[in-house]
């Protein structure tokens, strides 16, 4: 889990070295980690139930094990016998084969034309691009000799950014006769 208090302390200690847009971005990230990152939906999506593709069932044991670990780690809630929220959306889980494992992926691009991804108001999203090694080096130099640097394990990156309570109903899925 992310230590928000330490992150806030680091941002505050660096505030004099950050530009106004950098400081604003850092504070927005902290706010999203505290209260959830809004999904920036254009309109209120209706409930839906999209079945999982056959590949998910073919890798059922691995998918079940991963979902169980997600529940144990607190990344998902469930299982529930009935949809736990009003207007609950059941998104399909895809099984993506990787070199050493099967990775479940929540497909929020389905159903076409009526998905969470289709409904994102892109004008509300900040346009970001990856830094070059050169720019990263300049940033390190700008921060100075006693700057604090950290690395974060990205294995569970998306699961570490919470969703606001109002958006949780958009991220549901169904497995083995139960809702999550």
User: What is the radius of gyration computed over CA atoms, rounded to a whole number of angstroms?
Assistant: 19 Å
Inertia-based shape: globular
**Class by helix and strand content?**
alpha/beta
Largest sheet: 4 strands, mixed
Beta-strand residue fraction: 5-15%
Low confidence ranges: none
In DSSP terms (H or I, runs of 4 or more residues), the helix count works out at: 5
Describe the structure concisely:
The protein has 180 residues and is of the alpha/beta class. It has helices at residues 4-14, 20-35, 54-58, 60-73, 133-143, and strands spanning 48-49, 89-91, 93-97, 102-106, 172-175, 178-179. The longest helix is centred in the N-terminal third of the chain and has 16 residues, at 20-35.
Structure characteristics:
four-stranded mixed beta sheet; 6 strands; globular; two-stranded antiparallel sheet; 5 helices; 12% strand; alpha/beta
Describe this structure in words.
The chain has 180 residues and is an alpha/beta fold. It has helices at residues 4-14, 20-35, 54-58, 60-73, 133-143; strands spanning 48-49, 89-91, 93-97, 102-106, 172-175, 178-179. A four-stranded mixed β-sheet has the order 1-2-5-6, with no helix packed on it. A hairpin with a 2-residue loop joins strand 5 and strand 6. Helix 1 (4-14) packs antiparallel against helix 2. The chain is globular. The protein starts with a helix and ends with a strand. The relative contact order is 0.21.
């Amino acid at each position: 889990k992310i230590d928000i208090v330490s992150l806030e302390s680091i941002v505050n200690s660096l505030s004099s070295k950050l530009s106004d847009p950098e400081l604003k971005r850092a504070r927005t990230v902290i706010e999203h980690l505290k209260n959830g990152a809004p999904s920036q939906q254009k309109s209120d999506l209706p409930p839906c139930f999209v079945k999982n593709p056959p590949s998910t069932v073919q890798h059922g044991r691995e998918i079940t094990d991963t979902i169980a670990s997600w529940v144990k780690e607190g990344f998902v809630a469930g299982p529930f016998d009935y949809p736990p929220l009003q207007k609950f959306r059941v998104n399909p889980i895809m099984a993506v084969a990787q070199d050493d494992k099967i990775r479940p992926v929540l497909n929020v691009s389905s159903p076409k034309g009526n998905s969470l991804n289709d409904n994102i108001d892109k004008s509300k999203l900040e346009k970001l691009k990856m830094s070059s090694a050169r720019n990263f080096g300049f940033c390190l130099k700008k921060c100075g000799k006693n700057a604090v640097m950290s690395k974060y394990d990205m294995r569970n990156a998306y699961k570490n950014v919470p969703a606001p309570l109002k958006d949780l109903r958009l991220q549901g899925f169904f497995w083995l006769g139960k809702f999550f």
